[in-house]
Amino acid sequence: MAVSQPRVEKDSEDCSLLPLVHDVIKCMDKDKDGQDVHQELMKLKTKIQKAREQISNMPGIDSSPQEQQQQLATLREQVRTKNQLLQKYKSLCMFDVPKAS
Amino acid sequence: MTSHPFVVERDANMATLAEKSTKERLLSVLDDLEVLSRELIEMLALSRSQKLPQPGEDTQILELLVQRDKEFQELMEVAQQQGKVHQEMQVLEKEVEKRDSDIQQLQKQLKEAEHILATAVYQAKEKLKSIEKARKGSISSEEIIKYAHRISASNAVCAPLNWVPGDPRRPYPTDLEMRSGMLGHMANLPSNGMNGHLPGDALAAGRLPDVLTPHYPWQPSDVSVGMLPPHHGNDFGLEPPGHNKENEDDVEAMSTDSSSSSSDSD
């Protein structure tokens, strides 16, 4: 966890679009119709497009967190019930059936 | 100060956004960011080209942009957390599948056990029926023993223990008995085969007079024992058979009679 926490922060910082917007505005102050503004705009556009692709490929976000928690609880309940069933069967009185040779 | 139309529209959709999936919310916020940043840049470009400062509106858009960017980052964190939960759910799903296969295996074993038990119950019921049937038609053991005595008294099932070659008592029908039976009458066989052909069989049938009864020296009857020389009694085992002339004759006669007896039985 100590290792993954900085990574999450880094990801959060990476997904922010404000630095790129700031770069565009800063470039506009220096060169109003120059190539630098277009370049910065392209960077912003590319960043947005990559963010869209990243969001499309992220697993487990097809439902809301509440729905996901409900699904998780349902799965845990299923595992618990099935474990109880198996345990109940194993604790039954068993008979050794001789194999017909 | 009037609020931006974008803000009013977005606030109205906040309730429905909370019910949407994280992916839809992320894409929606990303669209907002794109629109707001474009609007801000265009506004700034226009204001600087026309040298007309429009205080208030650009600030409002900038605040909205910052707010949406913060919301986007928060949603990205939520999405990453959901990714971890998704991994946990996959592990649980695999566990559920494994438990399902275990339960199916046990169900299969139970079916086999049910089949075995059903067969055993069926066989037990059949056995009970047989027992009940036997109880209804029960016969006393004394009666069975009497019947067994009747069968064995005529040597019909087993030769007597002291049987020797030439002894007419035997556990199968004699030729005379066969001829006098129903099969013999049906085949209309001539009954003159008894004339000297099978003296032993005729004797077994008890229809020949004692005069015709052959006497064999090896017969364990009292007469034969009485006719034996004295040394046949106690000294029989002391001398080798080859040194006794009478014993050799007896053996030879025995083998001859034995061969004739076996041929008669055919």
UniProtKB/TrEMBL annotation, chain A:
<feature type="coiled-coil region">
    <location>
        <begin position="34"/>
        <end position="92"/>
    </location>
</feature>
<protein>
    <recommendedName>
        <fullName>Mediator of RNA polymerase II transcription subunit 9</fullName>
    </recommendedName>
</protein>
<keyword id="KW-0539">Nucleus</keyword>
<comment type="subunit">
    <text>Component of the Mediator complex.</text>
</comment>
<keyword id="KW-0805">Transcription regulation</keyword>
<comment type="similarity">
    <text>Belongs to the Mediator complex subunit 9 family.</text>
</comment>
<keyword id="KW-0175">Coiled coil</keyword>
<dbReference type="GO" id="GO:0006357">
    <property type="term" value="P:regulation of transcription by RNA polymerase II"/>
</dbReference>
<dbReference type="InterPro" id="IPR037212">
    <property type="entry name" value="Med7/Med21-like"/>
</dbReference>
<comment type="function">
    <text>Component of the Mediator complex, a coactivator involved in the regulated transcription of nearly all RNA polymerase II-dependent genes. Mediator functions as a bridge to convey information from gene-specific regulatory proteins to the basal RNA polymerase II transcription machinery. Mediator is recruited to promoters by direct interactions with regulatory proteins and serves as a scaffold for the assembly of a functional preinitiation complex with RNA polymerase II and the general transcription factors.</text>
</comment>
<dbReference type="InterPro" id="IPR011425">
    <property type="entry name" value="Med9"/>
</dbReference>
<dbReference type="GO" id="GO:0003712">
    <property type="term" value="F:transcription coregulator activity"/>
</dbReference>
<dbReference type="Pfam" id="PF07544">
    <property type="entry name" value="Med9"/>
</dbReference>
<keyword id="KW-0010">Activator</keyword>
<dbReference type="InterPro" id="IPR039242">
    <property type="entry name" value="MED9_metazoa"/>
</dbReference>
<dbReference type="GO" id="GO:0016592">
    <property type="term" value="C:mediator complex"/>
</dbReference>
<keyword id="KW-0804">Transcription</keyword>
From TrEMBL, chain B:
<comment type="function">
    <text>Component of the Mediator complex, a coactivator involved in the regulated transcription of nearly all RNA polymerase II-dependent genes. Mediator functions as a bridge to convey information from gene-specific regulatory proteins to the basal RNA polymerase II transcription machinery. Mediator is recruited to promoters by direct interactions with regulatory proteins and serves as a scaffold for the assembly of a functional preinitiation complex with RNA polymerase II and the general transcription factors.</text>
</comment>
<feature type="region of interest" description="Disordered">
    <location>
        <begin position="223"/>
        <end position="266"/>
    </location>
</feature>
<dbReference type="GO" id="GO:0003712">
    <property type="term" value="F:transcription coregulator activity"/>
</dbReference>
<dbReference type="GO" id="GO:0006357">
    <property type="term" value="P:regulation of transcription by RNA polymerase II"/>
</dbReference>
<dbReference type="Pfam" id="PF10018">
    <property type="entry name" value="Med4"/>
</dbReference>
<dbReference type="InterPro" id="IPR019258">
    <property type="entry name" value="Mediator_Med4"/>
</dbReference>
<comment type="similarity">
    <text>Belongs to the Mediator complex subunit 4 family.</text>
</comment>
<comment type="subunit">
    <text>Component of the Mediator complex.</text>
</comment>
<dbReference type="GO" id="GO:0070847">
    <property type="term" value="C:core mediator complex"/>
</dbReference>
<keyword id="KW-0539">Nucleus</keyword>
<feature type="coiled-coil region">
    <location>
        <begin position="89"/>
        <end position="123"/>
    </location>
</feature>
<dbReference type="GO" id="GO:0016592">
    <property type="term" value="C:mediator complex"/>
</dbReference>
<keyword id="KW-0804">Transcription</keyword>
<keyword id="KW-0175">Coiled coil</keyword>
<keyword id="KW-0805">Transcription regulation</keyword>
<feature type="compositionally biased region" description="Low complexity">
    <location>
        <begin position="255"/>
        <end position="266"/>
    </location>
</feature>
<protein>
    <recommendedName>
        <fullName>Mediator of RNA polymerase II transcription subunit 4</fullName>
    </recommendedName>
</protein>
<keyword id="KW-0010">Activator</keyword>
